[in-house]
Each structure stands twice: as C-alpha cells, then as structure tokens.
Amino acid sequence: MPIICWLLSLEGVEVTEPETMSLTSELAKKGEFYHAVLNLIDPKKAQILIKEHQQKLSKLYFLPVPGTDYPLVGMAVIYAVREFLAQKLQVRWFHETAAGQVMDKPMIEGPARYILMALGDTQARSSRNLYVYSPKSLLPSYRESIEDVAQIISSFNVILPEPEMPFIPNPCWRQADGNLYMNGCLWDIRTTKQEFPLTMDNIVQQVAYIVVNQGKYPIDSMGIYYSRQQAYFQYPFTKLLKPGVIGQLESSSRPIVDLKL
Known about the structure:
Elements: H1 3-9, H2 23-29, H3 32-38, H4 43-56, H5 70-89, H6 112-124, H7 135-141, H8 143-153, H9 156-159, E1 167-168, E2 180-182, E3 185-190, H10 200-213, E4 221-226, E5 231-236, H11 245-251
Parallel strand pairs: 3-4
Antiparallel strand pairs: 1-2, 2-3, 4-5
C-alpha cells in the first residue's frame, strides 16, 4: 500500500492506490498526500512553534550580497555545514552526498569549494552535463555567491551545535533526500531572507520525511538552522504531532513507497 493510502487509512478512510509519485511534487500539489500529513500535526502546537520563530528571528545578520545566486548559495551552505560538522567528528562525508556521486571533492580552499559542491549537486539531479568544474572559470561567474557564502560560514563556530554520532550527511529515501541527519535529529538547513521563515508548509515537509522514513533512521526530533539569522532550533516531533501519532508511525506496518527524486 503506498504511503498516501496508509495515511488516509489511519483516519478510517477507504482508499484506492494512486500512481507512483515523488514526495516533493506531491507536497507541492497540496492534495490528498499533503492534507494527510497535515492531519498528523497538532495545529495549536505548530502555531506556537511558528510564533516562537517569528519572535526570535527579527534580525537578519547576513544580508544577501547583491547579485548572489540564491538557490546556489542555499545549497552551498548545506554542503558547508556538512563539512564543518564532519571535520569535527573526523568522518568521511562527501561521497555520501549527491555531489559526491558525480565529482571529486574540490581541492580548492575557502567558500568557493562549496559553490563547486552546489553545482555538482545540481548536476547530480539533472540528466545533462551542466558544468565544467574549473576554479579559474568559477570565480568570475560566481564571485557574489562566493562572497555571500563566506559571510555566512563565518558564524558556524558560534551557532552550530556540537556534532554527534550517528552522522549521515545526506539521508536518502527512495522518494526524497534530506539535508542532514545527526543522532536522531533530521535537519532543515535554510538560507533565507524572509521575515517569517517558518510556515506550516515547512513543518509538513519535515513531518512527511518521518512518515516515509519507514524505520530507516531512528528520527525523534527536527533541527532547523537559519544561516542568515544565525539561529538554530531543535524540537522533538512530539512537540508538533497529535497524541499517539509517533506510536502509529513506529508500530504500523508500512511498505516502501515507490517514489523517486
């Protein structure tokens, strides 16, 4: 039974099996799948969490550098966080990521290496050969993005928590992948200038990950790192979900969802 059918069956709804779908695209539709996941969330708890973020994220420490490539910088920061934590743990990490499947680890130093990794990540998710990974050709085209990444990573030592094992730099499922997994916590690494960056859609996405996790990783909490706001939050999923949902997720028999990235 696909996961959308399983979710709806928790509510006692008779369903038929839909066609194969991806997690990201199905959430974006805000159809049955989205609302089935939403129904697992306690709306009052979620609003408390959203309000708390609004109160604590009033200041933007790192304004985007004019001309920066927003999506590229966001992905570059994810790779920078992974490397920062992995180095502290002294563990291998790069070849467990999407970029590591299509390119060697960049040998250049500094923030430009993370732009290269972000470009590699984009290529890994595309069927086309998009980029030539040459530092000399990289700098003129992405100078603003490199500068943007440089200012953000300067705060890692102050903001990021001490790393713990088990550490998985790019947790993957058949239908999606995550930013980072560390000792039971699934991270969402967000590089945004939005005034109120946490929305119900963001919460639904994180809960959807634990729904499709199917016991692959022992997930009990979510961590959200806002790189421009210099803020890190971590919450147990019990602070978001309706009573009994965690038990249902852990004990129910759930087949693998036939979804792909």
